[in-house]
Description:
The chain is an alpha/beta fold. The chain has helices spanning about 15-25, 50-60, 65-85, 95-105, 110-130, 150-165, 190-200, 235-240, 255, 315-325, 345-350, 355-365, 390-400, 425-440, and strands at about 5, 30-35, 135, 170, 175, 180-185, 205-210, 230-235, 265, 275-280, 290-305, 340-345, 370-380, 410, 415-425. The strands form three sheets. The chain has an eight-stranded mixed β-sheet with strand order 3-4-2-1-7-9-10-8, sandwiched between helices. Strands 12-11-13-15-14 form a five-stranded antiparallel β-sheet. A two-stranded antiparallel sheet has the order 5-6.
Amino acid sequence: MIKVVKFGGSSLASAAQFKKVGAIIRKEETRRYVVPSAPGKRHSGDTKVTDLLYKCYGQAILDDDREEDFEEILKVIKDRYDSIINGLELTISLDDEFKTIRENFSKKIGRDYAASRGEYLNGIIMAAYLGYEFIDAAEVIFFDEEGEFDAEKTNEVLSKRLAHTERAVIPGFYGSNPDGTIHTFSRGGSDITGSIVARAVHADMYENWTDVSGFLIADPRIIKNPKAIDVITYRELRELSYMGATVLHEDAIFPVRREGIPINIRNTNAPEDKGTLIVEATCQKPRFTITGVAGKKDFASITVEKAMMNSEVGFCRKVLTVFEDNGISIEHMPSGIDTMTIFVHQDEFAEREQKVIAGIHRAVEPDFLELESDLALIAVVGRGMRATRGTSGRIFSALAHANVNVKMIDQGSSELNIIIGVRNHDFDAAIKAIYDIFVNTRI
Length: 443
């Protein structure tokens, strides 16, 4: 059995946390490939190393006399790593690495290079602590000329490299461009690196260790002590991640999904907890009708009304072309016989609203056009909804009882999720009502 284990920044913020991680890895011989993040916050008032690196590089590229500020921040970063090394009683030194970083920062080598050094340096320390081989991600993870991840080249090179490596540490978050320069994934991209490594070694399990015991059914900032999700499918995860559930980077599922490799979200501070298992499909019945509920605020809706629009060929296409021409992405589009409503991000739409309105009038000559702002979208997600009658009715009943007015409802043919539109100010009340009806009372 082969496991790939990825540890987040909070799990590697200090020497004490490193020791917890080391104990977890050594507990099972199958944990052969390790993907570390950069050191995170040690306490609420602390700063993540990645943020310090961004700040340091920002000072380095200023064309004025601020070399002292640059050196001061770089020393703070080096002290963080030295404290980890000393706490682990290692004999390695990062002096040469920091000399190279100082030179490259002075050459203005790029923000991606600067940000990637957090994972790179932590990877060196982790490899030395475990006695594993260190593999620079820039040598095995690749991006193309357009900056897009080159999945097939990466898998080919990484598979060959790891086929001859029994145990290795591969830093998360970054890879290299065709010209050899460093390129990073978006923030949280170490999750993606772990998934890429898992695919390359045909892992039996990808364990993603963080500071929570898996996914929760609802946001703990809204629901007090929400229940944990035991098992969730990739499709359910995508729906919840898109709507704001951020335990795992939403793009991390793609490399492992195509190989059928399950992901296990675990808690470094509570390693005995089973966490959440993410799978392609399962016969295991969920504990509740819904798997999770999540949402986002600050949407706007544009309702277009025109008599007999359903018989007008190309009507929807013409309307959507107006949004495309203005560079605005569509979130949801419920429609009726004579109406269609388009939901968009309010901040994207606000700058171009008059151009969009004029464009729609020219394109389809509507009878009526109405705008609404300050709306929230909530996704109720769950494979259990397919086999349960009256799910929508229970949602409406719960929201009505909580005095929440529903502005929109949109259900896909897969019956995997139901999207509900409410006012921003009703967002928390709606989440609480939905959670209560399906989890607390199970009516």
